Amino acid sequence: MRVISGFLKGRKIDGYNIEGTRATMDRVKESIFAIIFNDVKDSIFLDLFAGTGSIGIEAVSNGAKLCYFSDINKKAINVINKNINNFNISDKSFVINKDYNDALLYFKNKDIVFDIIYIDPPYRLDVYNDILDKLIKYKLISKNSLVILESDSKIQFNNNYTVIREKKYSNKYVSILKLTI
User: Fold this and answer.
1) Which residue, among 147, 140, 143, has the nearest Cα to 165 in the 3D structure?
2) Which residues, at least 6 apart from 99, have a Cβ–Cβ distance to it below 8 Å?
3) Fewer beta carbons under 10 A from the terminal one: N or C of the chain?
């Protein structure tokens, strides 16, 4: 697994074999970042359910001002920290070891508003709409924020969001959303 683009392009990302995680395929990552490229520069990015941190690292590599990496898995957190240190991007990275509920509440209490949020939970968890609701309730996004969801099936979203782009990659769906309210 490697960084696809930006100033870290070609660098190897450790941790593709962490138990309980699944890496986003390079071609999926490349496609997503081609779509959101203009929005990434100087953004505040959240990689929720971060795993290896591959998505957030890609965001930093492409100019994100700051990326928050959140995962409940301690092994994943150790790998994320190792990758951040190896790439010398700790000044643009903040790592939090919490489940998604506690992480979102933490961000609310810190008054953080994200420009881009990438959500890739274990597929067995049906938490997408819960997270989408909390993003609004906790004021973690603005009307210009992008929310990117990776799932194993097409998701019915609540009416507060508009699907900007949706694409199927093999057995994955990627949806890019914006607020409608």
Assistant:
1) 147
2) 72
3) C
Handedness of CA 137, 139, 98, 58 (dihedral sign): positive
Whether residue 20 is predicted with pLDDT greater than 70 in this model: the reply is: no
Which residues partner with 168 through β-bridges? 173
Looking at residue 19, its pLDDT comes to 66
98-130 pLDDT per residue, tens = 999 999 999 999 999 999 999 999 878 889 999
Provide DSSP, 38-84: HHHTT-EEEEET-TTSHHHHHHHHTT-SEEEEE-S-HHHHHHHHHHH
Q: Which helix (H) or strand (E) holds 28?
A: helix 26-40
Q: What share of the chain is helix, strand, coil (3-state, %, to 5)?
A: 35, 30, 40
Domains identified in the chain and CATH numbers = 26-179 (3.40.50.150)
With a pLDDT cut of 90, the percent of the chain lying above it is: 78
Q: Is pLDDT of 23 > 80?
A: no
